[in-house]
Design a protein that fits this description.
The complex is a heterodimer. Chain A is an all-alpha fold. Chain A has helices at residues 2-27, 44-50, 53-86, 93-101, 108-126, 133-159, 162-170, 175-204, 207-212, 220-228, 234-262. Chain B has two domains: 2-73, no CATH class; 79-310, MetI-like (MetI-like fold), CATH 1.10.3720.10. In chain B, strands 1-2 form a two-stranded antiparallel sheet. Classes of the chains: A mainly alpha, B mainly alpha.
């Protein structure tokens, strides 16, 4: 009896999570321009999407920004995680940890607004970076994702046995050798997860990008967002389906990789 | 020129030697955070105390050199006072708290049974079930909001279906109200509630629940006197993880809530993009930050008190 009830709960819960998304996917293949009245199977919205120059350009911009910011964020985040877990108490450590994790709870509007005001100030003094639209978005996204990456790598570092690193140091390896031969392989699954999360977060952000993006740096979410203000359109369904497929494949592959590594 | 270059290089290497490799490592993420997180926050504080003017940038500076040696500091608290005077701002804050609170409670009501069911399912399926909870989180946020626009809008799936089945005669106003905003937030943040709840419930020893049954407790008693107290850390963590981001949320209230659902996030956006009033937007942001920091400090304090009382 109890077993059945938990199954019912799970069914309802997953239906709530997945039914709306399944609707989006199904109606992306609908022939009619009116999204919800089914008139027949068609791929024409995918064709329309792939020949839309604005969307294509925005996709390229978004992917560029996401790859760059995820990569920088992973390097900085790994350094920060090592500092937090491996360094003894130093002056300002609490402040460092606090400032690194604070963007996690910072409302997006506040973060976007404050970064834009910094960029305006910098532009006045150095004449940079407002002219370069993608640079501002990339910097903002690194700041946003840095805390997520740090948390993920830090959790992994805390779980690993420090004795292995100490043994290598005792046997005469330099700290840099120890990092590349021992620490890095151990934390690599966390680094991959961190990179993917940073990539997905950057690809997903609309609020911060809307604040800081300069002219010519329109990202894909900004286009989708302005499209959504006008209601539903089958092209967005098609775009959503493509994005969902790519992202889910990425998540499943990384999950399998990490799962295998653990065994 | 050459001499200066040499001097600079020797100075830099001397500095690096003095700082040491360890501190050099610290400098990269540290400098990044100072430059791109702490500095913007300080600038925001500064602008929140300035006055709005029609210029570029559209705010007055706080410091002014008057004649040779008089430095004048002008602090304008009018932006903060306006937040308490204008009914629109107060309504925005009240709305935000109400929407975030309702969504948190609903997430708890949906998330708890789900987390419990996952924790009690066989170990073989647990990994897959958990992954199925995160998977929607990885698909784009905007797409998840779009899915609900498609379901709820005037010509959306639910209205079309009900009209076709002759359940209703006219489309229901499902979108552009706080109900839709809450629904969107619940849908978007449910994984944040399920995960901490799951990890708390998973640790509960099931024999304790059986003991409660054996001693004659009803399922309700067993739940309220055993399961709930033991999963309290998960309840606090999950609630904070939903409430805090929901409070400053902009996209969901904007797209699903419509014009009538005024929230702090939308007010900041409108002050900046609509009214071009940077000081007002900055002051609103500062107050919003207070609202966000408060629940975190409170849960932190609770944990500290608990740790102290345990010792």
């Amino acid at each position: 009896m109890r077993f059945r009830r938990t199954n019912l709960i799970l069914c309802l819960g997953y239906m709530f999570l997945y039914l709306p998304l399944i609707c989006v996917v199904v109606y992306s293949f609908n022939e009619s321009r009116l999204v919800v009245s089914w008139t027949g199977f068609s791929l024409k919205w995918y064709k329309a999407l792939l020949s839309d120059p604005i969307i294509l350009r925005a996709t390229v911009t978004s992917i560029k920004v996401a790859v760059l910011s995820a990569t920088v964020s992973v390097v900085l985040g790994t350094l920060a995680a090592i500092i937090i877990t491996r360094f003894k108490i130093f002056r300002g450590k609490t402040l460092f940890v606090g400032a690194i994790t604070a963007p996690l709870v910072m409302p997006e509007v506040v973060m976007g607004l404050s970064l834009l005001m910094l960029f305006v100030g910098m532009e006045k003094i150095f004449g940079w970076p407002l002219g370069n639209g993608t640079a501002t978005v990339t910097i903002a996204h690194i700041t946003l994702t840095l805390s997520y990456v740090t948390m993920i790598v830090q959790a992994r570092l805390q779980d690993t046995d420090m004795a292995i690193e100490e043994a290598a140091l005792d046997l005469g390896a330099s700290p840099i050798t120890v990092f590349f031969l021992i620490t890095l392989p151990i934390i690599s699954p966390a680094i991959i997860t961190g990179w993917l999360l940073a990539f997905a977060l950057s690809l997903d952000d609309v609020v911060i990008a809307s604040f800081v993006a300069g002219p010519g740096a329109t990202t894909l979410p900004m286009i989708v967002f302005s499209g959504l203000r006008f209601g539903i359109s089958p092209e967005i369904n098609a775009l959503a389906t493509i994005l969902m497929t790519v992202l889910s494949i990425g998540v499943v592959i990384s999950a399998v990789l990490i799962y295998k590594k653990k065994i | 020129m050459g001499k200066i270059k040499e001097k600079v290089i020797s100075l830099i290497s001397e500095v690096i030697g003095k700082i040491g490799g360890r501190n050099l490592l610290l400098m990269f993420p540290g400098l990044w955070i100072i430059l791109f997180f702490i500095c913007p926050c300080l600038i925001l504080v500064k602008i929140s105390f300035s006055e709005s003017v029609i210029a570029s940038p559209p705010y007055t500076s706080l410091l002014d050199w008057i004649s040779g040696n008089v430095l004048q500091i002008r602090i304008n608290i009018g932006n903060y006072l306006a937040l308490f005077k204008d009914e629109m701002y107060i309504r925005g804050f009240v709305n935000s708290v109400l929407i975030a609170g309702t969504s948190t409670v609903c997430c708890l009501l949906i998330g708890f049974p789900m987390a419990y069911a996952i924790a009690r399912s066989s170990a073989r399926f647990r990994g897959i079930l958990l992954m199925l909870v995160v998977l929607p989180f990885w698909t784009s946020f905007l797409i998840r909001v779009y899915a609900w626009i498609m379901l709820l809008s005037q010509a959306g799936l639910i209205n079309t279906l009900l009209l076709k089945l002759h359940v209703i005669d006219a489309p229901l106003p499902l979108m552009h109200n706080s109900f839709a905003a809450c629904l969107g937030i619940i849908y978007a943040y449910l994984p944040f509630m399920i995960f901490p709840l799951y990890s708390a419930i998973e640790k509960i020893d099931y024999s304790l629940i059986e003991a409660a049954y054996d001693l004659g407790g009803s399922p309700l008693t067993a739940f309220f006197s055993v399961v709930m107290p033991l999963s309290a850390p998960g309840i606090y963590a999950g609630s904070a993880l939903v409430f805090v981001p929901a409070l400053g949320e902009f996209v969901i209230p904007e797209l699903l809530g419509g014009a009538g659902t005024l929230t702090v996030g939308r007010l900041v956006w409108n002050e900046f993009f609509g009214n071009m009033s940077w000081p007002a937007a900055a002051a609103l942001s500062m107050v919003l930050l207070m609202f966000v920091v408060l629940p975190i400090v409170l849960t932190q304090r609770r944990r500290e008190i608990k740790l102290l009382s345990r010792d």
